């Protein structure tokens, strides 16, 4: 299926041609279209162009109107104010464009892919081995998953990377304790659930920590284990692998509850770059990017200083020979650039790590690993807050477990679905409750600009009113219900029909879906997609209130309005899928 040119692009092309004809000396001119309350579109670039060319803006606008080829696209182009152009699209053009999108059996609604797609590595959903996932892990997973879906929809080749915390000194303690208490994890991983797996690890960690803090001889043995682990001792590595495998069972269970696919080959944690660390340090030191300072290998920056005014370096290798996070992150950049051939490295990481990543990216740039053709971006996200506007905690002041939060969302949503359900079985209510509850959590996160904090308010999230995923899901289910009630009457486009104002507004908004996808993907901004979908559902509600569908005035109008319903439903379904949210057929 060929892509469909949007109405805004078609208008833009005609106005640009007319502008060039009116002012040949200006070359190709941009009319700068925007949506307007007074017309379908408004061109407001003429004022700036007239000023540049020292022309009268209203006279220039009048000349442009006289040169515009309207055809079957433009119903009216009029000069407004000091030199704006108000543009009205014909009803036929709106219906025909939607019909072309409707005919796309790929599900893409005629949305084109990027002309020059690249390779983007998205680093997101980064839990820690042997530790429970908490509310702080939510945003990286949800935002990263949606951005990945948006990029892939535009044609970008996306490589997922889950940089889990699977290395460090705590593993020496855990491995030594398990070696001395071999039956603590004596079971087949496949036989336990994710919750049980993490319960086992949590219990093991607490027991190991108790011995580590009270037994100096054990502490010494545990520290030797760290050395063995870093040196690649086979027995120690085998024990370490048990912790990783046990944790993955848990990770997969949480991500499954989040309705996210996390594949094992995409999990490349800190340990995955061990073999590269020494070479990374050597390359940085030999190139002069990093220097030795008090025994440590450091990179200094003119604009990064401590409270005392002294430079604060990025420490790549510690004075005792150990490697820090910077060495691992820089090695990961080398792998992603030179082995995965990425053009863009996108890190969906907490805003509190912004300084670290700024220093890492600048170091990689100085080393030549990042340049004009290959760049790295941190998609920094804010904090999840409670209703009181403070970091989300339990009543006891502890960090909220992610599974507890998700379970509560599902319970709340199931109650809403049960209250509204008319012909759903208990099994269906449970299934829809999970889809609505998880959708509510994701949408609340994604509808806020990533760099802002947001309040976690389940009462608002599962509300049927306002900017929530539940509102969108019920709008979709309502449309599907209407299409079922239509029986043998099928949706069909009738371009010859005059459209109601509510039909026009809905049709024009549906047509702008592709532009919204492109913008949201280019800016890594899922919140722009949520804003689009909320407006789509709102416009559909207005259409539904003002334009009878099954009781329209003629059979042709019934078919045309069913067609508008169906293309809206398809757009809602695809848009929500790009957010990672389900759209149940019945609610």
Automatic annotation (TrEMBL):
EC number: 6.1.1.19
Superkingdom of origin organism: Bacteria
InterPro entries: aa-tRNA-synth_I_CS, Arg-tRNA-ligase, Arg-tRNA-synth_N, Arg-tRNA-synth_N_sf, ArgRS_core, DALR_anticod-bd, Rossmann-like_a/b/a_fold, tRNAsynth_Ia_anticodon-bd
Boundaries of every Arginyl tRNA synthetase N-terminal domain copy: 9-89
Subcellular location: Cytoplasm
Reactions catalysed: tRNA(Arg) + L-arginine + ATP = L-arginyl-tRNA(Arg) + AMP + diphosphate
GO molecular function list: arginine-tRNA ligase activity
Motif, 'HIGH' region: chain positions: 127-137
Keyword set includes Signal: no
SMART domains: Arg_tRNA_synt_N (SM01016), DALR_1 (SM00836)
Classification via CDD domains: Anticodon_Ia_Arg, ArgRS_core
Enzyme class: ligase
Domain DALR anticodon binding per the UniProt entry, residue ranges: 472-587
Chaperone in keyword set: no
Principal location listed in the UniProt entry: cytoplasm
Matching PANTHER family: ARGININE--TRNA LIGASE, CYTOPLASMIC, ARGINYL-TRNA SYNTHETASE
NCBIfam families in the record: argS
UniProt-recorded name of the protein: Arginine--tRNA ligase
Organism in which the protein naturally occurs: Streptomyces olindensis
Phylogenetic placement of the source organism: Bacteria, Bacillati, Actinomycetota, Actinomycetes, Kitasatosporales
């Amino acid at each position: 299926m060929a892509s469909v040119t949007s109405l805004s692009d078609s208008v833009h092309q005609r106005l640009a041609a007319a502008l060039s004809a009116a002012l040949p000396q200006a070359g190709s001119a941009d009319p700068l279209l925007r949506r307007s309350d007074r017309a379908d579109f408004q061109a407001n670039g003429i004022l700036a162009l007239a000023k540049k060319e020292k022309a009268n803006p209203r006279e220039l606008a009048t000349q442009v109107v006289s040169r515009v080829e309207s055809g079957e696209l433009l119903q009216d182009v009029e000069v407004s104010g000091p030199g704006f152009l108000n543009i009205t699209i014909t009803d036929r053009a709106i219906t025909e464009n939607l019909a072309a999108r409707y005919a796309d059996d790929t599900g893409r609604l005629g949305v084109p892919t990027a002309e020059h797609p690249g390779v983007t590595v998205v680093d997101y959903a980064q839990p820690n081995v042997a530790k429970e996932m908490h509310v702080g892990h939510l945003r990286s997973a949800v935002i990263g998953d949606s951005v990945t879906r948006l990029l892939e929809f535009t044609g970008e080749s996306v490589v997922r990377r889950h940089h889990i915390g699977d290395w460090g000194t705590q593993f020496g303690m855990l491995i030594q304790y398990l070696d001395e208490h071999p039956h603590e994890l004596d079971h087949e991983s496949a036989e336990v659930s994710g919750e049980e797996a993490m319960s086992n690890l949590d219990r093991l960690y607490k027991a190991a920590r108790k011995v580590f803090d009270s037994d100096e001889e054990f502490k010494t043995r545990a520290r030797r284990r760290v050395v063995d682990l870093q040196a690649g001792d086979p027995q120690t590595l085998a024990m370490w692998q048990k912790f990783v495998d046990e944790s993955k069972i848990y990770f997969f269970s949480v991500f499954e509850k989040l309705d996210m696919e996390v594949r094992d080959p995409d999990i490349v944690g800190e340990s995955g770059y061990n073999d590269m660390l020494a070479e990374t340090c050597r390359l940085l030191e030999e190139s002069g990017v990093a220097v030795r300072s008090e025994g440590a290998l450091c990179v200094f920056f003119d604009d990064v200083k401590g409270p005392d005014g002294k430079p604060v370096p990025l420490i790549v290798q510690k004075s005792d020979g150990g490697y820090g996070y910077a060495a691992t992150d820089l090695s990961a950049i080398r792998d992603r650039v030179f082995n995965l051939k990425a053009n863009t490295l996108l890190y969906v990481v907490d805003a509190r790590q912004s300084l670290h990543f700024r220093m890492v990216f600048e170091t990689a740039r100085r080393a030549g690993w990042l340049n004009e053709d290959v760049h790295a971006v941190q998609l920094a996200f804010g904090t999840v807050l409670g209703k009181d506007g403070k970091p989300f905690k339990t009543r006891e002041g502890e960090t909220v477990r992610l599974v507890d939060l998700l379970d509560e969302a599902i319970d709340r949503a199931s109650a809403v679905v049960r209250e509204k359900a008319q012909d759903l079985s208990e099994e269906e209510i449970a299934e829809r409750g999970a889809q609505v509850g998880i959708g509510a959590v994701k949408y609340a996160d994604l509808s806020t600009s990533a760099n802002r904090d947001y309040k976690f308010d389940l009462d608002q999230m599962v509300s049927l009113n306002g900017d929530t995923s539940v509102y969108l899901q019920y709008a979709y289910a309502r449309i599907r219900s209407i299409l079922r009630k239509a029986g043998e009457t099928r949706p069909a486009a009738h371009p010859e029909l005059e459209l109601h104002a509510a039909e026009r507004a809905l049709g024009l908004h549906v047509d702008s879906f592709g532009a919204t996808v492109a913008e949201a993907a280019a800016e890594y901004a899922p919140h722009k997609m949520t804003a689009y979908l909320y407006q789509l559902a709102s416009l559909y509600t207005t259409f539904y209130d003002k334009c009878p569908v099954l009781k329209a005035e003629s059979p042709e109008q019934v078919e045309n309005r069913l067609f508008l319903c169906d293309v809206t439903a398809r757009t809602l379904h695809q848009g929500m899928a790009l957010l990672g949210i389900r759209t149940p057929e019945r609610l």
